[in-house]
Design goal:
The chain is of the alpha+beta class. The chain has a domain of 82 residues: Copper Amine Oxidase, Chain A, domain 1. It is built from three helices and six strands, in the order E-H-H-E-E-E-E-E-H. The longest helix is centred in the N-terminal third of the chain and has 14 residues.
Amino acid sequence: MARRSRYDDVSSLGRSDVVPYRRWEDPAGRHARRLYTNLKYQADVRVWAQRLGIDLKISNEGHHWRLVFGTRVAEWWPSSAKLVLDRNYDSGVHVHDFQQVVGYLENQWNLDRQDENT
């Protein structure tokens, strides 16, 4: 039987285009693939974060991402797809990839989206 998280996610951002679900993949393999894939894009996330004045710290060999914007804090664990805002662990969101994290934080923190083509 799978181990349950102490804090279940209250919502999910849906399927990922970056790390798509594979029906017969074992959970450990899925978590490792999710971590590896998101780490490949950490430079892109850093550019986005710097542009908006967000401090990004990645620790524990990529397992823990911490984004700080003023007094707001987001913590994300890519392998388990857990995103928590302001240490509110009871209200975690299931977020599979960096694109979903970026979109969610832009929405939650009312960040100005800039057109990538300009």
